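Problem statement: downstream parser choked on a complex file, so we are re-checking the raw output for the iron/sulfur cluster run. The parser issue turned out to be on our end (a line-ending mismatch), but while we're here, posting the original submission so the record is complete.
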Amino acid sequence: MKVNPAYQTKQQLLDLYNKPLLELVFEAATIHRQFHDPREVQMSSLLSIKTGGCSEDCGYCPQAARYNTDVEAHKLMTVESVIEQAKNAKANGSSRLCMGAAWREVRDNKDFDNVVEMVQEVNNLGMEVCCTLGMMNENQALRLKNAGLFAYNHNLDSSPEFYGDVISTREYEDRLNTIENARKAGISVCSGGIIGMGEAVEDRIGLLMSYMKMETPPESIPINALVAVEGTPLEDQKPIEQWEMIRMVATTRILFPEAIVRLSAGRTKMNMEGQALCFMAGAGSIFAGDKLLTTPNPEFNEDKEMFDILGLVPKEPFKDGVQPVSMPDAQIEARKRKEEEREAELKLARENAIQEGFEPRKVTSVESL
Ligand code: SF4
């Protein structure tokens, strides 16, 4: 049951969201137990592989180049450092790594080749690999899929009606297209939203209705609370009450019984009791590690303590799907072949030059260059 047939109209959904809180949690917990092991919560890590300097204008995002925030931009991490971070995350109990790049869209260049390699390497570590790289076309989705990508994250953020109040540089439709491209490539979809941006409850319901209309709704639905960052247009938004997060998690759980509902950004503003109610109401994943891309998140140790107190256990990878097989990437192979040929040509040219009596200059230290 991908979508719960008991709820179809906007009014039914609103009534559900506004139910007395404990009744809502009870209904969600009952459904959660039918489809999931309630003790298992997946620990996922989110790694910003390319930070800041984004050309988009998402009003909540400190990585947009046009806003004056404290985020330090850095270019794409190397494949080696991503592998190191992935190993650390795995050693700390994470079974999924989500790699985020602050791009408007994927471009077919060397950076994307490197991301493809990162996906291959992290998949080979036995972790679920998720990427969030902005918009992408079908061909790019296919390359990621063949590299071993398990999931692609692309959030709809809010309802179609409210979306334009927060983002103007790309349309809701663009987001739907990217989700469709991931779907066509056979990649599982992770897509959710942010609450606390000034939207009405109707907009939260509108977001969920967008997923209900899809032929196949997302397998993974992250629910975020806005982390208002100084310098962004939403900097003055008051933090939402944790009860709203609980309501949103519970409503999502009831509507999409099979999906993994992810309790994502904004946990630092919740206490353990609030988070416990979210787990009770069907949250099946948290992001672990002290940073969520660029915003604060509870430390690994705090989460471990919370798991012990609540009797939760970290979920193993690939319980919701088979591990993809990483295949060699044709474009990376072609590039490597070209680099090898170029290297061989240079070597031959050097050898020929030496035979003809040319003495290469000896470099003894970096200073002498
Ligand atoms: S949310 Fe993503 S696309 Fe939007 S500004 Fe931030 S990095 Fe760019």
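For whoever reads this later: The chain is about 40% helix and 15% strand.
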